Amino acid sequence: MKGSDVAELSAFVAIVERGNFARAAGWLGVSPSALSQTIQRLEARLGQRLLNRTTRTTRPTEAGQQLYERVRPALKEISAAQAQLLEQQDELGGRLRINASRAGAAYALAPHLASFAETYPGIEVEIVISDRLENVVASECDAGLRLGESLEQDMVGVPMSEPLRWIAVASPLYLARAGTPEHPAALKEHTCINMRWPSGGHLFHWEFECEGQSVRLAVTGPLCTHDVATRLRAVKDGLGIGYFLEPEVRGLLSAGDAVEVLESWCPREPGFYLYYPGNRLVTPQLRAFLDHVAARRQKVVAT
């Protein structure tokens, strides 16, 4: 059955229950002439006259009465089902599982969690921390959170942050001792703090770009760890140059414990995206979270 068929039957029931076109039109929020055209289409489709009209009242024909008695319970059931879904949406419960990197959870998810919990107190958000590129289906999560450049093509991605920069930083102590690199190639002559991808086990390559020139290189140094806190402490203590997402190192920069180097070589790249398989239905909990984040971001843009 088409949606227009349901609309026509609903209009017919409204007329029978309210006794004339004018009252039914007012209840439906349409003009009497538009309602009359709707009934004409219904009668033409069914091939029978359904209503007898006088100047003061409208009553169903025998065929119309039979149709009314069959249709009215079905329409009430449809209305009740819709009302139940809306009520459930207002009182959503259950669990929302999101697989996220540590940086993504801290800088893209955490700012929304308090307001989301206030809006949907029945939903429990569980954040599964993993710096590997996890398959959200295999990890039994509703969605994942990663940098946009890491998303697979069959995933639906929803932006959760502004574009971000990977930046190279060092402490004033280190730069006073070793000098400041002016070009990414100069990093080969410096002590660098390395990290290794949790998935695959290969070293993380530092990437730079300036005026159409791209540089991607592996660095060397006395420390290799994926732990952000350890690398930040090593930079602060003057061990060497580190490479971080800009939000991770803002604290050191604002405190003067580190300064950015090669600034012109660090352009903005796609930020964090919440992603989920495009061939799966979105759960009500995930839909609520996506809508909540979109509304908050729109409010920020408007202000």
Automatic annotation (TrEMBL):
It holds the Pfam family HTH_1. This is LysR family transcriptional regulator. Belongs to the LysR transcriptional regulatory family. The keyword Protein biosynthesis does not apply. It comes from the Bacteria. Residues 1-61 form the HTH lysR-type domain. GO terms for biological process: DNA-templated transcription. SUPFAM superfamilies: Periplasmic binding protein-like II (SSF53850), Winged helix' DNA-binding domain (SSF46785). Keywords: DNA-binding, Transcription, Transcription regulation. One of its GO terms (molecular function) is DNA-binding transcription factor activity.
